[in-house]
Structures are given as C-alpha cells and as structure tokens.
Specification:
This protein is an alpha+beta fold and 355 residues long. Helices cover 34% and strands 11% of the residues.
Length: 355
C-alpha cells in the first residue's frame, strides 16, 4: 500500500487563442484530422448505418458543419445560416440517433462541401469579429474533437477503424517502482471543478470545496487479465491493456466481485489532481456518481449542453480514452452516459473504503 501526501495542482488547460490567425490554424488542423479519420472509407460506408445505436458517419460530418455555422458564423459572426433548411436535420435533439438512418441526409460529397462552405464563413466571422473571449471558438473546436471520438466508436463497432487504431497500450505495473497497486488518499478538503481562468464547460464550474473521507483507489485501471480473473469472462485485447467497452452496470458488478467499489467522481478528481493515478487516458472510467450540476451551476451557453441531462439517469465518467483529445480530456472534464451503454471506450478503476 502506498500513501502519498495530498497536493492539488491546477488541472492542465489549453491556452485560449489571442488572435484569429491562431484560432483558424487550430480549426484547420482539427478539420484535416477529421477528414483523414474517415478518408479510408467508401461513400457507401459513410452513408450506411454501421451500428443501430450510432449515427451514419455522414450525419456526424454534416452535424459538425451545422454546429460550427450556428455558433461561430451565425451567433458569433452575425451571419445568416448557410443552410437553414438543414438546421433541424442536423440538430442532435431535433433529430435523435434512432431516426438518422431513416431520413434523407446529405451524402458524403455534399457533407464535405457543407463543411468547406461553413469554414469559409467562419474565416470571415473570425477575421471581422476576432475571437472574443474565446468561449465560442473553443466550443466549436472541442465539439469537432468530441465527434471524432464518437465516429471512432461507430467505426470500432463496425470493425472499420483506420490502420494503427485503437491506440490502446499495455499498462506497465512497474511504471512507478516501489508503489503498490492501491493508493491511500487521506481525508480532507480539495477544490473540485474548474477555476475561472481559461475555457471550461458549464458543468465543470463553479470550483468548490469538497471534503472527502479517506479512501483507497487503484493505481491502474482494471485490465483484461484482471477482468478475466474476477469474472471468468475473457475480453478481447492485450491481457495487460485496460478493459474496454464496459457498461456502468458491468463495471459496478465487477467492482463488487473484486471486493471493491467504483470511486465517486469527487474521489477520482482528488486522486487525479494529487498525481496518484496511472493509466489515465486509456479508457473513460466510470464513477458511482450521477450527473448533476455543482452548487451554483449556471447553464452556459445553452441548457442543452449539460443541464437537460442532470438527474438520476446518467452516470459520470472521468479521465478520457485513447481517442479523446487532450484538449478536451482535462482533469476536471466530466463525461456522462446512460449506464447501459458499452459502445463508448469505457473501463473501470476500483476504489475501497478505509476502515
């Protein structure tokens, strides 16, 4: 058992751009990555429903364009929408996943043209209006990065990931020589959430003090070998890689069978900010916490990003996966999903009470 004194470094944040040229360079880099991600797929594959629980990839591409047009060109830049006739089709709430394969959508060529047309308007908006406080620009950029991960989930289900992916690596148990598999975190308060500087999503704020009782947390996520030894079920992948595609229910049952439990998200963040966790960023890690607003939560810039998901239905995941951009997956970033869903790149990290 290893015990490390609590320390609370600030979660790393990507600096906001100070000039339109810097913002456009980042937007263009991400766009190149998005198009390269699906560049090996045929038009038929892009247009097909590759999984009944996911969108056609061509929908994702046009949705990225519609979101950028709404926020960067229209609301930030004051321009009329390029394709107001597409606003409802590519609105995630107006057109849920269940119907996206049943309605008429833009084909891959038209979706790429829509992306290009919107980007030229974003250039105009940024050059004329600047980046403002950077919030809208970061919202648009990170939205595209998040959809890159969603598209990877779709391709993973269909066995169509690009060569060289996924980027899962075996977890080396000797990375921290002399430290045990369980880390003890002392009782005490810490500052949870994102501070006032830089970009953060509304559900990460406001930062607030949380007093956490003592607990133990696993230094590494559960591996495929760990999973098989507890449940008897063999999972695909390297035995020493983090187990992936696990639902919350499966994660919770595995934790119980292992004589442990899932960490609360406050426990996870305190341990992560104290530098106690290894293997973060291989798989999203389920917590026991329901998704809700922090004390003093204010929806920004729209309720549908976070607030409509608050309540008992969704569980929080932390840490990011191999497919998550570091720009998105900061130590305060909160992901959430329904506990039955296992198509996400999610795994397990165990925690225990201190008696």
């Amino acid at each position: 058992m290893a015990t490390i004194a609590h320390r609370d470094p600030i979660a790393p944040r990507h600096p906001l751009p100070s000039a339109p040229e810097e913002a456009l360079a980042a937007l263009n880099t991400v766009r190149e990555q998005t198009l390269a991600l699906v560049g090996h797929l045929s038009d038929e594959q892009l247009s097909s429903v590759l999984s009944p629980i996911m969108s056609p990839l061509a929908w994702d591409l046009a949705h990225i364009a519609a979101y950028e047009d709404l926020w960067l060109a229209h609301r930030h830049g004051g321009l009329e929408l390029l394709r107001p006739d597409l606003a409802e089709v590519y609105d995630a709430f107006e057109t849920p996943r269940a119907v996206r394969g049943e309605i008429e959508l833009l084909g891959p060529e038209d979706a790429r043209a829509y992306l290009a047309g919107v980007r030229s308007r974003s250039v105009e908006a940024l050059q004329r209006k600047g980046v403002g406080d950077g919030t809208i620009y970061e919202l648009v950029l990170r939205h595209e990065l998040q959809h890159s991960e969603t598209m990877r989930q779709t391709m993973a289900l269909a066995g169509l990931l690009p060569p060289g992916e996924p980027g899962m690596e075996p977890l080396a148990r000797d990375t921290l020589a002399g430290e045990g598999d369980w880390m003890e975190v002392p009782a005490g308060p810490f500052e949870m959430g994102a501070g006032v500087d830089g970009f953060a999503y509304d559900n990460e704020r406001p930062a607030h003090t949380v007093d956490v009782p003592p607990f133990q947390i696993a230094r590494l996520p559960v591996t495929n070998a760990d999973w098989a030894s507890v449940t008897g079920a063999v999972r695909a992948g390297d035995p020493n890689a983090a187990v992936c595609h696990v639902s919350w229910f499966e994660a919770n049952e595995h934790a119980k069978a292992a004589g442990a439990r899932l960490p609360t998200e406050a426990e996870w963040e305190k341990a992560a900010k104290s530098g106690l966790l290894s293997g973060v960023g291989q798989v999203w890690e389920w917590t026991s916490s329901h998704f809700d607003g922090y004390p003093g939560f204010v929806a920004h810039p729209y309720r549908e990003y976070s607030e409509v998901f608050f309540g008992e239905d969704y569980r929080v995941l932390r840490g990011g996966s191999w497919a998550t951009s570091p720009r998105v997956g900061t130590l305060t970033f909160r992901n959430w999903d329904l506990p039955v869903r296992s198509q996400i790149f999610a795994g397990v990290r165990l925690a225990r009470d201190v008696s």
